[in-house]
Amino acid sequence: MAEEFAVRMVDITKTFGHVKANDKVYLELRKGEILSLLGENGSGKTTLMNMLSGIYFPDSGRIYVNGKEVVIASPHDAYALGIGMVHQHFKLVDVLTAAENIELGLPGKAVVDRKAVAAKVRQICDRYGFSVDPDKKVYDMSVSEKQTLEIVKTLYRGADILILDEPTAVLTPQETEKLFAVMRNMRDDGKSIIIITHKLNEVLAISDRVTILRKGEYIGDMDTAKADARSLTDMMVGRTVTLNIRRDTPADPERRLEIRNLTVKDAEGVTRLDDISMDVYAGEILGVAGISGCGQKELLESIAGLQNTVSGSSVKYRPTGPDGPAEELIGQNPRTIAEKGVRLAFVPEDRLGMGLVANMTLVDNMMLKEYRAGKSPLVERKHPHDMARQIVRELEVVTPSIDTPVRKLSGGNVQKVLVGREIAMEPTVLMSAYAVRGLDINTSYTIYRLLNEQKRRGVAVIYVGEDLDVLLQLCDRIAVLCGGKLNAILDGRTATKEEVGYLMTSLRKKGELGA
Amino acid sequence: MNRHEPLIHIAKRDSIAWWRAWLVRLGAVVLALLTSALFIYALTRLNPVKVYGAMWEGAFGTPRRAWITARDTSILLCIGVGLAPAFMMRFWNVGAEGQVLMGGCATAAVLIYCGRSLSTPALLGLGLAASLMAGALWGIVPAVFKAKWNTNETLFTLMMNYIAIQLTCFFVTKWENPKGSNTVGIINQKTQAGWFPDLAGQQYLLNVLIVLAVTVCMFLYLKYTKQGYEISVVGQSENTARYAGISVRRVIVRTMAISGAVCGLSGFIAVAGASHTVSTSTAGGRGFTAIIVAWMSKFNTFVMILIALLLVFLEKGAIQIASQFHLNDYASNVVEGIILFFLLGSEFFIQYSVRFRSRRSEKEAEA
Q1: Which residues contact A444 (CB under 8 A, 6 or more apart)?
Q2: Which percentage of chain B shows pLDDT scores above 90?
Q3: Does A354 contact B237 at a Cβ distance shorter than 8 Å?
Q4: For residue A239, what pLDDT is reported?
């Protein structure tokens, strides 16, 4: 008798403190299908999957694997049932080779039979179209190679139910295509796969069925063939959200930042940013696209005075247009930049590790950049207090009080506090790195709105982003970085997704960069 | 509902009301006293209530004893207060022992070399300055290495202790009085030059007042000054500090200078205000005990008063019961250990909530 379902999870509930991460969630995975688990950030997707793979234990509910009720109390139990999960943050030992990582934790002799492992790895690779070098050390691997290794590791352990947690977040479009091809091969071989994602196009491209969660609750599932982006969005967010991002034509933009020959080398002497020259205009949003780690961080931090640059680099700040006086920002630090009267706002990628102090209250975080003002040796908390009030009110920050440590706020509210503070300084240049990463759609739109307001105020806005759709709809111009080099600057209104994606991954030849 | 559920659920608490936290701590003390009582009775067949009474006698039984308790509490407190800014900055200064000793040696040097030529106020002023500088120096050295080359401050400050101990031994030999005693003896015993004066007829009142003033100042410094704010930011995240334009190196060095200076001040008080001599026991391990004081109080200098008092009370009480009931010293150490164990352990229950399976399913049945 063939059982139709590989996995059924019934009435699964899991609470963290006061937060119901999962509330009576239902999920079914049929044999030999690819199921998308779709939901906004914080909708409980990863929590649910962690219970299937034995990381968490449900507060209540039942799990059936191949028709039998099971108890999964550890990852070991999960593997015994043929369930393997590839986490968003890889669980690999950097100094070991691929083969050693695969063998790690498995019962067996003290000495690893490398040949046998390598042979079995090769067999798995050939079967599904992977390529893994068993003797390569993990620290030498690219992100995509590490992910492949994680998948091979689960297959090696005999998993036939695979869970992939946001596997495409770290991949280029080309790598994503390759991953999808492999996933289809695995499905055709009879494996059942769950892919966690919040990218609608991927849901439609890869999966057979889709299950939607919203705020920890099960909303429903449907065959992908019957779904479209619109209906999925509706189910995911609960109500229709306009997908259009407003974009005004810049009103007579003038040059505010002149970046010339900007080069950055890291501590190991590796070139992170290679001879970048471009202008940033007041009253426009300049998008910066690129695969993660292609110099975006170094670019913003150089301008902010947080990065050591190679001599010859220059960033000139012109508060009154191209003919006005200029201030050299390279060679300064955030303090001297501020003291020179340059109102430079910076929303860094690492919100709680750089932009804010996680353990401090909203009020104390407000004064991070202005606490120095005045001659008194004492700090002044009245103004930060009012500022926190105002930001909480205007941006609808959900917090018990303004005296709550920001670490207790959810991701979206943390970002509102950070962006709110940076905007409150009435900047002339506003830089943001992955400003909407991890935020739900509503909060993302709040951020887009705020950036657009700043643009209308005549601020030079730099938006480093990863979602190409957003970059193409929000930005006036898009600078594409590739391996630390400036590959092209495109017009945001005419550029296509394919064009940007291509430029992110393949460097143009010299001379081709005409514009 | 689920038969295979683990027996105990441990979950990190979101937050806990301050009064509940203190209730837990109070409960811990009560439990500790009960456990100690059982222990005392089981081993010695003595009446635990009498033993506790004797401890109280030892610490507060006479005005003289109470003042000695106050004197020792204030030195321990002063060291704890000195550690507070370093720990707030997440700089693991375990070098208080050495900083205290250097402060003590500097004070002793002033009293010995200038004892005849200067008046007592001048000696005290000079000794104070010398002890602050000596302590600060012992704090600055590891801080500079940390700031410039990111050396591990725990090992560095620990090793600085040994240098300080060896230097103290050297000075003891140099200042030996009388010759051959291998101690410095009471400095300026006849003239009492450079000794803390009596205030309102109390020998140790000045010690207590100085330390209370330092305690209040440090509280205000950490909470309401720009420098205090910088210390918190650097301690929480150096990246954020850099982002905010704070010079992390400068804050590290400045804060350790202050931390070391206050520890040096404890050495000054210990020498000029209490023992009037110097030896390696001028610090006597209090540089390490103060780490407990600083941590248990979560760097709140006012809470430190309570913790320091508790620790000194236990110590004095232990000495008393040892002599009164002819118990071995270690018996009293055990009592001290039990109380500390419960107090530190109670922090776990403040940070985490523990629920048992049975209680949970009852709750579910109600719901």
Answers
A1: A436, A470
A2: 58
A3: yes
A4: 56
Q: What percent of chain A stands above pLDDT 70?
A: 94
Residues whose CB is less than 8 angstroms from the CB of residue B52 and which lie 6 or more positions away in sequence, other chains included: B33, B37
At a CB cut-off of 8 Å and minimum separation 6, what does A368 contact?
Answer: A356, A357, A421, B233, B240, B243, B244
Alpha carbon of residue A284 to chain centroid? 24
Which of B254, B276, B289, B332 is CA-nearest to residue B59? B332
Closest A-chain CA to B246: A335
Who's near B7: CB < 8 A, 6+ residues apart? B356, B357
Residue of B nearest to A352 (CA): B240
Whether the CB-CB separation of A489 and A515 falls below 8 Å is answered with yes
For B92-148, give the DSSP string: ----HHHHHHHHHHHHHHHHHHHTTTS-HHHHHHHHHHHHHHHHHHHHHHHHHHHHH
Residues near A452 by beta carbon (within 8 Å), at least 6 away in sequence: A246, A247, A248, A285, A474
Residue A255's φ and ψ, nearest 5 degrees, are: -65, 125
Bridge pairing between strands A460-464 and A285-289: parallel
Candidates A444, A492, A498; CA nearest to A471 is: A492
Tell me the three state secondary structure of residue B40. Answer: helix
CA dihedral B341→B343→B345→B351, nearest 10 degrees, is -160
**Domains of chain B from N-terminus onward:** 1-46+325-367 (no CATH), 54-321 (1.10.3470)
Picking from B5, B225, B246, the nearest residue to A379 by CB comes out as B225
pLDDT band at B322 (very low <50, low <70, confident <90, very high): confident
| Strand pairing report for A344-347 and A217-223 | unpaired
What is the Cα–Cα distance from A102 to A117, expressed in whole angstroms? 8
H or E stretch including B285? none
Q: Which residues of B touch A372 (CB under 8 A)?
A: 226, 245
DSSP codes joined into one string, A168-229: GGGS-HHHHHHHHHHHHHHHHTT-EEEEEE--HHHHHHH-SEEEEEETTEEEEEEEGGG--H
Residue B77: C-alpha distances to residues B63, B161, B291 (Å) = 20, 19, 10
pLDDT at B84 over 80: yes
Transcribe B71-101 into DSSP letters: HHHHHHHHHHHHHHHHHHTT-----HHHHHH
User: What is the pairing mode between strands A477-482 and A285-289?
Assistant: parallel
Q: Which tokens in the block code for residue B358?
A: 């049975």
Peptide bond into A250 cis (omega under 30): no
Q: If you write DSSP's letter for every residue of A56-75 in order, what string do you get?
A: S--SEEEEEETTEEE---SH
In tens, the pLDDT along A125-141 reads 888 888 888 888 998 88
Q: What is the per-residue pLDDT across A221-234, written as a single tens digit (0 to 9) for each?
A: 999 999 887 788 77
Enumerate chain A positions whose Cβ falls within 8 A of a Cβ in B.
16-18, 57-58, 60, 71, 73, 304, 306, 333-338, 346, 348, 350, 353-360, 364, 367-369, 371-372, 377-379, 408
**All domains of chain A in start order, with CATH:** 5-237 (3.40.50.300), 254-343+429-436+460-515 (3.40.50.300)
- Its ipTM equals 0.82
Read off φ and ψ for residue B150, nearest 5 degrees.
55, 45
B351 touching chain A per CB within 8 A: no
Residues whose CB falls within 8 Å of the CB of residue A227, separated by 6 or more in sequence, listed in order:
A203, A204, A210
Q: Looking at this protein, which amino acid is placed at residue A438?
A: G
Which residues sit opposite A463 in a β-bridge? A287, A432
Instruction: Note the Cα A80 to chain centre separation in Å.
Output: 32
Specify the length of chain A in residues.
515
Give chain B positions within 8 Å (CB) of A71.
4
